[in-house]
Design a protein that fits this description.
The protein has 197 residues and is α+β, with helices and mostly antiparallel strands. The chain has one domain. The protein is 25% helix and 31% strand. The protein is built from 6 helices and 8 strands; from the N terminus they run ββββαααβαβαββα. The protein has an 8-stranded mixed β-sheet with strand order 1-2-3-4-5-6-8-7, sandwiched between helices. Strand 1 and strand 2 form a beta hairpin. Helix 2 packs antiparallel against helix 3. The longest helix is centred in the last third of the chain and has 15 residues. The two termini are 20 Å apart.
Length: 197
């Protein structure tokens, strides 16, 4: 799967052409209530055009990203415990569950998340090679991953993964879970003009 997108760069005001080539891993249905099966991992290679736009082979790998999509609606429909789904993937994801959900397994009311039940995309990492590092490409990568996997859903990450200051997170639609290092973006709250971008 590949997403091509033309973007304006922050500092140079030049257009960049690129794509993210995703590789997914998901078990075949039926999942039979196995918590691990409700976590679909995706690895992406960030590719940038390095030559003539008409030559599809003139692409260089600029970096990579890793994410996992938690199929929350499927787990609920199959009566699978969501905490077990998060725990089946990693300790980091279990900590995110604890940040978002209360003791009864409901999204914490104080977070005012509107998009549930929905798919939840956990951005594990975004890594750019030194010569391709720029905030514009980082944001392009982040927005493309969200559009591909959680446009109307919930996106979560750790602050360390999205190495922005608070103002950058807010501009991208993220909020901080109070008292944690977890940030989230509710796709149901994003303005229509941002969704179109």
């Amino acid at each position: 799967m590949s997403n091509n997108k033309r973007v304006e760069r922050d500092s140079e005001n030049e257009e960049a052409i690129g794509s993210i080539e995703f590789r997914l891993s998901a078990g075949l249905k039926p999942w039979d209530g196995d918590p691990e099966e409700y976590c679909i991992s995706a690895e992406g290679k960030i590719k940038l055009s390095v030559g003539d736009e008409s030559d599809p082979d003139a692409m260089a790998t600029a970096g990579s990203l890793n994410l996992v999509v938690i199929k929350m609606p499927n787990a609920i429909d199959d009566h699978v415990n969501l905490k077990q789904v998060f725990d089946s993937y990693s300790e980091d994801l279990l900590d995110i569950y604890r940040a978002l959900f209360d003791e009864e397994g409901n999204i914490k009311e104080e977070l005012r998340i509107e998009c549930v039940p929905c798919d939840i995309a956990f951005i594990e990492s975004i890594t750019l090679k030194p010569k391709h590092r720029s905030s514009a490409l980082f944001l392009q990568t982040l927005e493309t991953a969200i559009a591909a996997f959680a446009g109307q859903g919930l996106t979560v990450a750790y602050m360390r993964t999205l190495d922005f200051d608070d103002n950058e997170w807010t501009k991208c639609g993220f909020e901080v879970v109070p008292g944690t290092m977890v940030i989230f973006r509710d796709g149901a709250k994003i303005a229509p003009d941002r969704k179109a971008g």
